[in-house]
Design a protein that fits this description.
Layout lengths: L3 E5 L11 E8 L2 H15 L7 E3 L6 E2 L5 E8 L4 E4 L2 E5 L4 H10 L2 E2 L11 H6 L3 E2 L2 E2 L4 E8 L5 E5 L11 H4 L4 E9 L1 E2 L2 H18 L14 E2 H6 L3 E2 L11 H4 L3 E5 L2 E7 L3 E3 L1 H7 L6 E2 L2 E3 L7 E3 L5 H19 L8 E2 L1
Parallel strand pairs: 2-5, 3-5, 4-23
Antiparallel strand pairs: 1-2, 6-7, 7-13, 8-14, 9-10, 11-12, 11-13, 15-19, 16-17, 17-18, 18-19, 20-21, 21-22
Helix pairs in contact: 2-5
């Protein structure tokens, strides 16, 4: 098995940023995943784990200008099968293709993911969610390959430790390579499914800076509980009840914090939109080098003019500092850096 060398990772990033990978291998075969990791272990020895990175769709990833001095493996497993209402999908299946499949097969339950970028494997790893839906709500089981034992394992939903934009696979940072998952949908009307998907796509296009290369939301939204712990008072219900639909989610109430009314959205539980916090500290449109905090959506940083990763990192640190100074909360980064 021959690995490619010095491959520019910017080509694999929706941000169009990143230096080269010392070694690179792409495969659609789970057996080759095992073989590739085994060969890398022989090459790298004790440092094999530290110098191994598993690449998905590159849509939620900030890659260093120096690239990655190790082995980048991209499992593009494209399995897509239906058995009744149960779907088995490979980690490399694009979310856009998966959603088209649900329309063709008259299957409902993923409409919330309309316009979601990246691969299915990445969505599972990060428990992707939007419009009151999350991947964890449909997953039955996840198949992985352990990089130490090179053995395949099936994880039931309860074992995946799904949390807000997280899972056991994200927490273990590449110890498990997701190769696919099985999930459950239900029968629906294809016209209604398509209309619901298009509604979400239109919403994203209208509110997100899709005209520039980006990697989605930089930070997680802030749980309202963090503001309550700082002494904020609610003028509405503080009950941490999961919204049942998007109409319910956007029925925002406000909390009173130091004389300021801060909006709360119930998606999937009461959160403060991070974009609001960044806007309130006056950072919309601020740029460093070729990177810019989007004037359209402040939780996006865009590659406006041949940006470098160091430009993006500087903006991220600026956002963290200013929001901490003004609101007293620590923003948690959603995008992964490598």
């Amino acid at each position: 098995m021959k690995f490619k060398e010095n491959i520019p990772l910017a080509h694999f990033s929706s941000f169009k940023i990143g230096g080269p990978a010392r070694y690179f291998f792409e495969t659609v075969n789970p057996d080759e995943v095992v073989q590739a990791v085994g060969e890398w272990k022989n090459v790298a020895g004790a440092e094999f784990r530290k110098r191994l990175f598993i690449l998905g769709g590159g849509t939620n990833l900030l890659i260093s200008d120096n690239g990655f001095d190790g082995f980048v493996l991209q499992p593009k497993i494209l399995l897509l099968e239906r058995d009744g209402n149960k779907i088995s999908a490979g980690a490399g299946v694009l979310m856009a293709d998966l959603l088209k499949f649900t329309v063709r097969e008259n299957l409902s339950g993923l409409e919330w993911a309309g316009g979601l970028p990246g691969t299915f494997g990445g969505a599972v790893r990060g428990n992707a969610g939007a419009f009151c839906g999350e991947i964890k709500d449909i997953i039955e089981s996840v198949r992985t390959i352990n990089i130490t034992t090179l053995k395949e394992k099936v994880w039931e939903n309860k074992d995946c430790k799904f949390a807000f934009r997280s899972s056991v696979f994200k927490e273990r940072m590449g110890e498990e390579i997701i190769i696919g998952a099985t999930f459950i949908l239900h029968k629906g009307d294809p016209k209604e499914i398509q209309a619901a998907l298009q509604e979400k796509i239109d919403y994203r296009n209208a509110r997100h800076p899709m005209e520039y290369p980006n990697i989605g939301s930089i930070f997680k939204n802030v749980p309202a509980e963090q503001f309550y712990s700082l002494g904020a008072a609610s003028d509405g219900s503080r009950e941490l009840k999961r919204a049942q639909n998007y109409a319910e989610a956007v029925k925002a109430f406000t909390i009173n914090w130091r004389g300021r009314a801060i909006p709360v959205k119930n998606d999937p539980f009461p959160i403060i939109p991070t974009a609001y916090l960044i806007s309130e500290v006056g950072l919309k449109g601020v740029s460093i080098g070729g990177a810019m905090i989007s004037p359209k959506h402040a939780n996006f940083i865009v590659n406006a003019l041949d940006a470098k990763a160091e430009d993006v990192c500087a903006l991220i640190e600026l956002e963290k500092q200013e929001v901490k100074k003004e609101f007293g909360v620590d923003l948690e980064q959603e995008v992964q850096s490598v």
